[in-house]
Amino acid sequence: MPPFLAPKPVGDYSQGMSEADHKILSAEVKLESQYYFYLETQVSLAIPDDDNCITIYSSAQMPELTQNVVARCLGIPFNNVRVISRRVGGDFGGKAMKATHIACACAVAAFKLRCPVRMYLDRKTDMIMAGGRHPMKVKYSVGFKSDGKITALHLDLGINAGISADMTPLMPRAIIGALKKYNWGALEFDTKLCKTNVSSKSAMRAPGDVQGSFIAEAIIEHVASVLSLDTNTIRRKNLHDFESLAVFYGESAGEAFTYSLVSMFDKLALSPDYQRRAEMIEQFNSGNMWKKRGISCVPITHEVNLRPTPGKVSIMNDGSIAVEVGGVEIGQGLWTKVKQMTAFGLGQLCPDGGEGLLDKVRVIQADTLSMIQGGFTAGSTTSETSCEAVRQSCAVLVERLKPI
């Protein structure tokens, strides 16, 4: 793992353990893998073109990466490879790195045979090569006081990467980032990325965040069980105040007035509806030996990273509008949002405020030669960044056209 990707420990673990009234040593948590199960399997169409060029229609959420990998595979410049992603039938991270395999296979065949080549995987083959979520084996030692306040935590993280690195080097930072949602007092960890003889694991919906949050909740529930206290009491006891949040997250903590996790947790845990449902579940469980129900309040934190995203708005001679963004439509309604933002942004030029513009807007598919450095569609931020790029483009057009 590159040093710049390695998360940093927090506080003095030895001192934290010395302050603890109780200790849990070398407890273990295992997390299994998970398959994406998008409706559309991996698919690609490669069409050779003049001048040593090639066009690829790929079910990829990272067209830019697919372009770069295919170009290197064929030994041609990046500008000789055009990747188009009109829409993707689901991905959840499975069509980030893995889409390049199918695109490259089609590209090599098309380049050699000088004819179009299309490939789509049946479900079984797709499941074999997809990899899925990273399995993990975790050992933890935790110290805590009699009132449930945790003073120190040490983790040994074993991450099954599969046969190649793929997205695995990014996982430790994401796992620890999600784990930091609680104030552990001192946090220390040892991470091992394990190369094994299975398909390489990749990013899957909230990669690392799911595992980190699960590990944190397993520890909280273990502490609650040892002390015979309600889990929500332990959770609330170890939520961050803003000072500890700043220690664990640094600049990502933001401003004190924006930190609302504690108040949100209190509002939910003390709400009449939650209390009523908790009582109903307790009554049900006491009367049923084999069937059990559960309810839980689980806080989460997530470090949102907004990436620069390109956008282009073009007004044609007849007043129709063509819009391009770097993001890919994967079922999240990106094109609808982009259309709405275009109508809103150009509405100042219309007497009706832009209500009649929606029918005039066409969103063009992601194209790596038309919209370079489009980035990747991931992290639940694509709609926001794409719409902001469109809004800024519209603002420039409005400024130019208003005098007319």
Structure description:
There is one protein chain. This protein has 404 residues and is an alpha/beta fold. The chain folds into four domains: 9-35 and 132-253, Aldehyde oxidase/xanthine dehydrogenase, molybdopterin binding domain (Aldehyde Oxidoreductase, domain 4, 2-Layer Sandwich); 43-130, 2-Layer Sandwich (Aldehyde Oxidoreductase, domain 4); 260-291; 311-401, 2-Layer Sandwich (Aldehyde Oxidoreductase, domain 4), CATH 3.30.365. Helices cover 35% and strands 20% of the residues. It has helices at 13-18, 63-74, 99-113, 123-130, 171-179, 209-227, 231-237, 242-249, 261-269, 272-286, 334-346, 382-401; strands at residues 22-31, 43-49, 53-58, 81-85, 117-120, 136-144, 150-162, 187-195, 311-315, 321-325, 361-364, 366-367. The mean pLDDT is 94. Belongs to the xanthine dehydrogenase family. Residues 10-239 form the Aldehyde oxidase/xanthine dehydrogenase first molybdopterin binding domain. Pfam families: MoCoBD_1, MoCoBD_2.
